[in-house]
Amino acid sequence: MLEPSNNSELPVIPGKRYFTIGEVSDLCGVKAHVLRYWEQEFPSLSPVKRSGNRRYYQRQDVILIRQIRSLLYDRGFTISGARQQLTGETAKDDQHQSQQIIRQLRNELEEVLAILKS
User: For the whole prediction, is pTM greater than 0.70?
Assistant: First the structure.
């Protein structure tokens, strides 16, 4: 993920809902044409497009861009390797969340079974 040392050299993300490509470029230290290229290479990066094809990035997009930047520039990953790293982390998060849901459902079913037995 984004290393704390790298985080300090980038500006703080303001508490806005949407950011233009120029603002994201400044916040992440990446040029606008690179951001447009990354949109093609990383399917999870998809800013909202409004009239005139203007891009508006949300906070989670800015965080994702910082993660991509860290993987590519700081940790030396290739585009393909960074994509795999990001999808691997997403898969781990999904698996963990699924396990939590299954545990919660099982506990609720055991409670229902106890009520039905009494």
Answer: no
